């Protein structure tokens, strides 16, 4: 049995509670859908990843994974998982997976573009 399988509900393998995992934040920076698929990114994060973030990246290295599946595997709420995933998208450790045959107006394409723009330009707002 893996550490993830033996962890109790509402805890990561390391035993951290949700408020510790998210640093007290209650909403993700990115609006991710439950079915948004993620893959390991090509960039290395500038700072070391926590245990929970490392677990998410490891899962996404195996194959594209939807947010809801990641939440189920790590046994954490979808909201907490979205916050961790959002941080990983910002760091470049994760990317939104886009199938080759996807339509240009598909929500995953729009999410990926938005994440890319935020990573490139930060929170710049138009006047």
Describe this structure in words.
By secondary structure, the chain is mainly alpha-helical. It has one domain. The chain is 45% helix and 7% strand. The chain is built from six helices and three strands; from the N terminus they run H-H-E-H-E-H-H-E-H. A three-stranded antiparallel beta sheet has the order 2-1-3. Helix 4 crosses helix 5. The N terminus is likely disordered.
Overall 3D form: globular
Order of helices and strands: HHEHEHHEH
Describe the oligomeric state of these chains in a short phrase: single chain
Beta-strand residue fraction: 5-15%
Task: Tell me the number of helical segments per DSSP (H or I, 4 or more residues long).
Answer: 6
Report the C-alpha radius of gyration, rounded: 15 Å
Which structural category do the helix and sheet elements fall into? mainly alpha
Strand order of the largest sheet: 2-1-3
**Ends distance:** 54 Å
Q: In terms of per-residue confidence, which ranges show pLDDT below 50 for 5 or more consecutive residues?
A: 1-11
Instruction: Tell me the number of strands.
Output: 3
If you average the pLDDT, what whole number results? 78
Largest sheet at a glance?
A: 3 strands, antiparallel
DSSP helix fraction:
40-55%
Count of discrete domains: 1
């Amino acid at each position: 049995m893996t550490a993830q399988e033996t962890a109790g509900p509402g805890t990561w393998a390391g035993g951290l509670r949700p408020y510790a995992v998210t640093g007290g934040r209650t909403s993700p920076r990115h609006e991710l859908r439950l079915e948004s698929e993620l893959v390991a990114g090509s960039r290395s994060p500038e700072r070391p990843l926590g245990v929970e973030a490392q677990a998410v990246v490891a899962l996404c290295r195996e194959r594209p994974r939807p947010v809801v599946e990641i939440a189920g595997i790590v046994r954490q709420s979808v909201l907490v998982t979205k916050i961790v995933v959002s941080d990983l998208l910002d760091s470049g450790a994760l990317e939104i997976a886009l199938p080759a045959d996807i339509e240009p107006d598909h929500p995953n394409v729009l999410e990926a573009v938005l994440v890319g723009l935020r990573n490139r330009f930060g929170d710049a707002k138009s006047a």
